[in-house]
Amino acid sequence: MDLGLNTKVALVCASSKGLGRAAAEGLAREGARVALWARNEEPLLQAAAQIHTKTGSETLPIVADVTKEDDVARMVRLVIEKWGTIHILVTNAGGPPAAFSRLMTCRPGKPPWSSIC
Fold it and tell me: Euclidean distance between the first and final Cα of the chain, in Å?
């Protein structure tokens, strides 16, 4: 299938495994250049290398934490410096903690998924 993504730039959050990795690989298979973003370096580097080997598409692994504003800004800057733009953003960043329902009331006015809750 040709989705017209050849040479597009995609940034996929939490892309070292699971749904994020599947999204990154699917975009790369369609010809997109893919920036993979995750907190853990080793699985991230492995995923980027394997996706590049399987698809031939350029990958850019970036170790970053979506809960840290400085990391997000650095990640966007690195992608723009390398490829000049971002066409596609996949915001696949984790989920609620295991005790989500208990955390719903932990701090009024703070989102329950925030690291300060």
Answer: 44
Going by their DSSP bridges, the two strands 88-90 and 59-63 should be labelled as: unpaired
Q: Which two tokens stand for residue 72?
A: 């997000």
Checking if the pLDDT of 111 tops 50, the result is yes
Top-confidence residue, 43 or 113: 43
Q: Residue 73: which of 11, 28, 19, 17 has the closest Cα?
A: 11
Beta-sheet strands, E only, within 1-117:
9-13, 33-38, 59-63, 88-90
Domain boundaries, the chain: 9-103
Class of domain 9-103: alpha beta
Pairwise CA distance, residues 114 & 116, whole Å? 5
The sign one gets for the Cα dihedral 96, 97, 102, 106 is: negative
Give the pTM: 0.77
Mean pLDDT of the chain: 84
What is the pLDDT, as a whole number, of residue 102? 46
Nearest to 27 by CA among 67, 55, 60, 49: 55
